[in-house]
Specification:
The structure holds 2 protein chains of 2 kinds. By secondary structure, chain A is an alpha+beta fold. Helices cover 26% and strands 13% of the residues of chain A. In chain A, the strands form 3 sheets. A two-stranded antiparallel ribbon of chain A has the order 1-6. Chain B is mainly alpha-helical. Classes of the chains: A alpha+beta, B mainly alpha. Chains A and B meet through strand 2, strand 3, helix 2 and helix 3 of A and helix 2, strand 1, strand 2, strand 3 and helix 3 of B.
Chain lengths: 198, 334
């Protein structure tokens, strides 16, 4: 089985935010929620870098560990998914997540959190693949159709890579060798406890 | 003349050399090995070492998403899944074991002279209402709070995921909404009982004698003894801490970021489970542990013998200048 991962090649990201827009559109993500975002560090200074970030689908995911209702599950492909029928919107996964992935639609009074929403690696949720019920709660299930996440598929500079961890790590290594530099796989150490040696 | 030509020749030679060098330099700069754009770029490891989190600029409206990475969530997870469970387990099970052992050795503490049949008003209506408002909401807050930490290990296997989620969802609503009457109760408790809860010399003596828990001695006390004063301050200060930390969690990003909310949850969790343990002891001594104690909070009237045993100085103050029987505070009941 593949072990699905994201890799953002920060030396290629041009901060066009197309991944953010494509994700919102593909999954009909509610207002106020962004499953993917682009953060620019040291903006305007020499050496600035932009990184596209979403749920990294961590190994031994902290959100899954702290969830009080066991709403999370990891698929055979290593994708971390959750059930909105089991989620109670307590906010714990948000405290635990190193990447700020879980978000909550605001419902009712004060800060009341609704059911958590996050990146699904375009793999839907616990409902049957491709059903309307699945689409309504989690968005499109591209993985079941044999396609990879849309954010990476349509990335114009191919900065964002999604797919089997070993394969995308290999692609990144070849790039680094060919061009002679690389600022590393952002978030990999935190998410997967490993880096790509280049 | 000859020297002039040699001079011109050497100048020309120098110019030729300069041109050669000038042409050669850009050519060598185009070699890929000499340019490294990442040499001056931001490095993930370095940023994490400096601040323990990485933040940047973001163009979507949600500015809170500008935090790229905060690995501290891993530490919080360790607290949430291991440390808090141990603290909670030890404080709650530990207190229960101590109470069971104490009850089996000491039994219910009786009134040594039996009931006198005469009663004295210990708590008025407002005091009792405030007590039960705070106590009732505390019990629901405690159960719904424990459910968040221990529910998935203890309750989920018994009732299944759907029923557990249904219960937890309601428990979360109860926890959020009942925090308001609980906090109101805390504030009123603080104002109505603060005057009787300032520590004094008499409390040192009471504590030295262990509150008379062992043996039959009854150290002197005014309206509240040292043990009750400790409970008062734990309720006011501990309750205040859980209320403040709880509201920080309930209103995300009002005043705190993610790191602040992690800290708030640590405070909320620890103070919460420790208070639950202490309140178990409070409930024990007010019901099973001592004869005549519960009526102080149910009817508000306590037996005069009970009052004289446990709060002698308070009874004397209340009786001062009043008829020994049939007064406003002391009423005879036969």
């Amino acid at each position: 089985m593949a072990r699905m991962k994201f890799l953002c090649d920060a030396d290629r990201c041009i901060e066009c935010n197309a991944c953010v827009t494509a994700c919102k559109n593909e999954h009909d993500v509610p207002w106020g929620i962004n499953r993917r975002r682009v953060v620019t560090i040291d903006d305007g200074k020499p050496g600035e870098r932009s990184i596209s970030m979403a749920c990294m689908h961590c190994t031994d995911a902290p959100c899954q560990a702290v969830c009080p209702t066991n709403a999370f599950y990891t698929t055979a492909d290593g994708v971390v998914l959750h059930s909105k029928d089991i989620c109670i919107g307590c906010g714990y996964c948000f405290y635990a997540c190193p990447f700020g992935a879980p978000q909550y639609p605001r419902v009712g009074n004060f800060g009341s959190r609704g059911k958590m929403d996050k990146c699904t690696f375009c793999a839907g949720g616990p409902e049957a693949d491709g059903t309307l019920a699945e689409y309504r709660d989690y968005g499109a299930n591209r993985l079941a159709e044999g396609k990879l996440p849309l954010c990476a598929e349509m990335c114009s500079t191919k900065s964002l890579l999604a797919g089997d961890g070993d394969i995308i790590a290999q692609i990144y290594k070849e790039r680094v060798t060919k061009r002679g530099y690389g600022s590393g796989a952002w978030g990999w150490k935190t998410a997967y406890r490993e880096t790509i040696a280049t | 003349m000859a020297t002039l030509f040699t001079r011109i020749g050497s100048i020309l030679g120098a110019i030729m050399l300069l041109v050669l060098v000038a042409v050669a330099t850009p050519a060598s700069a185009q070699q890929p090995s000499s340019v490294n754009p990442t040499a001056s770029s931001v490095q993930e490891d370095k940023l994490l070492q400096e601040l323990r989190r990485i933040q940047g600029r973001i163009t979507i409206p949600d500015q809170r998403a500008s935090v790229l990475e905060q690995p501290a969530g891993r530490d919080w997870r360790q607290f949430q899944q291991v440390t808090l469970r141990w603290i909670g387990g030890i404080s709650i099970v530990g207190i229960l074991v101590i109470l069971i052992l104490f009850y089996s050795i000491r039994g219910m503490i009786k009134m040594s002279r039996g009931r006198s049949g005469r009663t004295i008003t210990r708590f008025n209506g407002l005091e009792r209402f405030t007590h039960w408002l705070t106590a009732g909401t505390f019990i629901i807050l405690a159960i719904s709070g424990l459910n968040i930490t221990f529910g998935k290990s203890l309750l989920l296997p018994l009732i299944g995921p759907e029923a557990f989620t249904g219960f937890s969802q309601w428990a979360k609503y109860a926890h959020n909404y009942l925090s308001f009457p609980f906090t109101l109760g805390l504030v009123v408790i603080f104002f109505i009982w603060i005057k009787d809860n300032f520590p004094g010399k008499i409390d040192v003596e009471w504590l030295k004698q262990g509150g008379g828990i062992v043996g039959n001695k009854h150290p002197l006390a005014r309206r509240f003894n040292a043990g009750q004063k400790i409970v008062f301050w734990i309720v006011v200060l501990g309750g205040g801490a859980v209320a403040i930390s709880g509201y920080l969690l309930m209103f995300p990003f009002y005043g705190t970021g993610v790191a602040g909310m992690q800290t708030a949850q640590v405070v909320h969790g620890i103070v919460g489970v420790v208070m639950i343990g202490i309140m178990l002891a409070h409930i024990y001594i007010g019901t099973l542990g001592m004869e005549g104690a519960f009526e102080a909070m149910s009817t508000g009237e306590v037996d005069l013998n009970w009052a004289e045993e446990h709060h002698k100085l308070w009874v004397e103050e209340e009786m001062k200048g009043k008829a020994p029987a049939g007064g406003r505070t002391a009423t005879a009941r036969t």
